[in-house]
Specification:
333 residues; alpha/beta; 5-stranded mixed β-sheet; 40% helix
């Protein structure tokens, strides 16, 4: 197997986040499901945007956040996602390419605009998302660049993208290209409601294509329809080589067919906004994996990155991830 010039390439929904404060009463008035990501149409997007308070706009999208994290850790990365040739699309592309990420997916030149997600953060730091996918739904297998996939140690797939049938085809094509080149495939389950929509399909896809799975505790319990974490961990260890399950303040647990590694959460002075916690955990974990660190170190790297992003608003790091993890990386070398 040839040495990969890229560490990770991500495939996901290219979304610009609009983040605002909200209280529980606002969430209730809007009929939102607190803590969940809900897909909405253009009309509902305008309605929510008009009702919410002043917002902070920044590039997001689950896989986009992970790929940005990989790049900020010093890794080499690529990205596949669909934007429109509009202002938000240009902002999204610039935010990734300015980090050195290889992002060459052709934009739409007509039709749906670039996607946006209205993220309401309540005082308990929980985030409730209403997402208009826009141009994202146009991503298909033809957008999967074989050279980019073959160039990466790991192809990272965002579970949120699994809704459109053509995106499912893109996932399958990317996985086949990656494995034929001797590379790894990783999947994030993304959201418990996403798991609920695609439970059987996810199980089948994981068994047939996924080497490294990311999930939080709620998602992994939903995947195997159980309320017993030990049962879910046993089940997932028979489906893929590595599964990393985050548990919030309880840290994370990594399972393989042969071992189970539990790692405590990294300390956080104050949790401000949990948006992007799982995305940045995946970034740290994958950075560790692609630099051949032990699984416990991978999980600790993920925890440090997650702790940074939940200490402020927004799903992209503000502090230097390289500086935050340098001691951890040095000791694990």
């Amino acid at each position: 197997m040839a040495i990969a010039p890229l560490d990770v390439v991500g495939i996901g929904n290219a979304i610009v986040d609009i983040i605002a404060h909200a209280d529980d009463a606002f969430i209730a008035r809007q009929g939102m499901t607190k803590g969940a990501m809900t897909l909405i149409d253009a009309a509902r997007a305008e309605e929510v945007y008009a009702a919410m308070g002043p917002g902070l706009e920044m590039s997001g999208g689950s896989a986009g956040n992970t790929i940005a994290g990989v790049a900020l850790l010093g890794g080499s990365a690529g990205y596949i996602g669909k934007v429109r040739d509009d202002q938000l699309g240009a902002v999204f592309r610039h935010d990734l390419t300015s980090l050195g990420v290889r992002f060459t997916t052709a934009p739409l030149t007509s039709g749906l605009p670039t996607a946006r997600s209205m993220i309401l953060v309540t005082p308990d730091a929980e985030r409730t998302m209403h997402t208009f996918l826009g141009a994202c739904v146009e991503l298909g297998p033809e957008d999967v660049d074989p050279a980019l996939i073959r160039d990466a140690q790991v192809t990272y797939l965002e579970g949120y993208l699994y809704d459109p049938p053509r995106a499912q085809e893109a996932f399958g094509r990317a996985a086949e290209i990656a494995h034929s080149a001797g590379r790894r495939v990783s999947l994030s389950l993304s959201d418990p409601f996403c798991v609920g929509r695609h439970r059987q399909a996810f199980r089948s896809f994981i068994a047939g294509h996924v080497d490294v799975l990311f999930a939080n505790e709620v998602e992994i319990l939903s995947l195997f329809e159980t309320d017993d974490l030990a049962v879910a961990l046993d089940a997932v260890s028979s489906l893929c080589a590595i599964a990393a399950v985050t548990r919030g303040a309880k840290g994370s647990v990594v399972v393989t067919p042969a071992e189970r590694v539990e790692v405590p959460a990294a300390p956080v002075a104050r949790v401000v906004d949990t948006t992007g916690a799982g995305d940045l955990y995946a970034a740290g974990f994958l950075h560790g994996l692609t630099t051949e660190r032990p699984l416990a170190t991978c999980a600790r790297l993920g925890g440090v990155c997650a702790a940074e992003v939940i200490s402020h608003y927004g799903a992209r790091p503000e502090a230097s991830l390289k500086d935050l993890v340098k001691d951890l990386v040095a000791h694990a070398a």
